Amino acid sequence: MITSSHTLTNGLQNFIFEVTADGCLIKFVNCFGAITETMEFTIEEGRKQWKLALDCGCKRGYTNPRRPEPSAFDDNRWEAELALAQS
User: Fold this and answer.
1) Residue (of 62, 26, 61) closest to 43 by Cα position
2) Dist. CA 17–CA 6, nearest whole Å
3) Which pLDDT tens digit goes with each residue over 22-69?
4) In whole angstroms, what is the distance from residue 58 CA to residue 7 CA?
5) Which residue of 46, 52, 62, 72 is most buried, as measured by CB atoms within 10 A?
6) DSSP for the chain?
């Protein structure tokens, strides 16, 4: 049972800290909103990770997921660049 949940963001990724009586779960959320990794810590280690993240420039809050740029999936664009590079 989660007793509290806190979020940090570095502008691209989000970090969800879920604190229970037993420990702290940190979930890493990528820029598309998918949880990519979950790590379990004691409460004391979780506090150290929180402080380290703030010291490294993270801010409290959550950054909304971004949609991938449609042109990144445009096959014709890559073919044109490849043809240009081969000539």
Assistant:
1) 26
2) 5
3) 899 999 999 888 899 999 999 999 999 999 999 999 999 998 877 666
4) 10
5) 46
6) --SEEEEEE-SS-EEEEEE-SS-EEEEEE-TTS-EEEEEEE-HHHHHHHHHHHHHTT-EES-PPP-PPPGGGG-HHHHHHHHHHHH-
